[in-house]
Amino acid sequence: MNDIELLRKQISEIDADIIGLIAFRQQISKRIGEYKKQHNLSVIDPAREALLHEFHRMTSIDHGVSPELSKKVFEVLIEESRKVQTDEQ
Questions:
Q1: Which residue, among 20, 46, 50, 82, has the nearest Cα to 58 in the 3D structure?
Q2: Which helix (H) or strand (E) holds 29?
């Protein structure tokens, strides 16, 4: 296996890990949705989302990742979490 094939294999392994983490995140989001439903809470929590956005921004900076990239990724993940929490999946 040459260098580029090895690097691509590593990317594929990382991608698989990311997908596994997304699946785990969705499982937790579903549990959060069940809790919110039981306690008559809104799926959308602007204060929590603001905290998450700041956490993502700071964590991105700490890891040398573009905060804009992280913002885009997590906007999609948060939207999917909302769908999971409202059974729209």
A1: 50
A2: helix 3-38
Model confidence over 41-87: pLDDT tens digits?
A: 999 999 999 999 999 999 999 999 999 999 999 999 999 999 999 88
Tell me the pLDDT tens digit for each residue of 26-36.
999 999 999 99
Domain total for the chain? 1
Q: Are 74 and 52 in contact (CB under 8 A)?
A: yes
Q: How much is the pTM?
A: 0.88
Domain CATH for 14 = 1.20.59.10
Treating both helix axes as pointing N-terminal to C-terminal, what angle do 67-85 and 46-63 enclose, rounded to 10 degrees? 140
Distance in angstroms (rounded) separating the CA atoms of residues 52 and 57: 8
